[in-house]
Specification:
Elements (H helix, E strand, L loop, with lengths): L2 E3 L7 H8 L52 H20 L15 H16 L2 E2 L4 E13 L2 E10 L2 E4 L5 E5 L2 E12 L2 E10 L1
Antiparallel strand pairs: 1-8, 2-5, 3-4, 4-7, 5-6, 7-8
């Protein structure tokens, strides 16, 4: 297997991805089963009001830099850089809710990164420095103007997850990692469709 799923990150970056060891990274979205019940019409039933279906709207990060919004290969690269910058913030502050607006709802990897931010926040933990340093970002394929493949080489830095008192909970070891992003362009910005850790 050459590719490892990036999902359910609740332990160090590389280790958590390797734990999943499923091929192909983000899985394709599956059709969700709808719990729609159809009531038989009756003459004695009182008129009922039907609530509008709830639609989950993913807001777009309003702070995405102009360079990272450009509908160009350079824009896709700048967006990928911004994604990692925000991930560093999410895990060091920590702060929840800043990665989801950069991703499509179908991205399991994004949900996993966000889950780690939520865990850190709930436990009062944080990373004592940026967990990721970018060494290279480049567009691999831009034949479809609205869907780019982007390669990102990063270093998972040797960092400690610490509690509120500064006690080390776990230490991530320094590792070179390579990620394959699929970015989609819609409206006026990029978003992460899928994300894989590549060996």
């Amino acid at each position: 297997m050459k590719k490892t799923s990036a999902a359910l990150l609740a332990v160090p970056l590389a280790a958590s991805m390797l734990l999943l060891s499923g091929c192909g990274g983000d899985s394709k979205p599956t059709a969700s089963s709808s719990n729609t019940t159809t009531a038989s019409p009756t003459t004695t039933a009182a008129p009922t009001t039907t609530a509008s279906p709830t639609t989950t709207t993913r807001t777009t990060d309003p702070n995405i830099p102009a360079a990272a919004r450009a509908h160009t290969p350079a824009g896709a690269e700048a967006f990928t850089k911004y994604f990692f910058e925000r991930m560093n913030v999410a895990w060091t502050v920590p702060r929840t809710g800043i990665l989801n607006p950069l991703c499509q709802a179908s991205s399991i990897a994004c949900a996993a990164f966000e889950k780690t931010a939520a865990r850190l926040s709930a436990q009062g933990h944080r990373y004592d420095g940026n967990p990721v340093t970018i060494t290279f970002i480049g567009v691999l394929n831009a034949t479809n103007p609205n869907r780019y493949d982007v390669l990102a080489n990063v270093v998972q830095e040797r960092r400690n997850e610490i509690d509120a008192a500064g006690k080390t909970i776990i230490t991530d070891q320094r590792k070179n990692l390579r990620f394959h992003f699929v970015l989609s362009y819609a409206g006026s910005n990029w978003s992460v469709s899928s994300l894989k850790l590549v060996k």
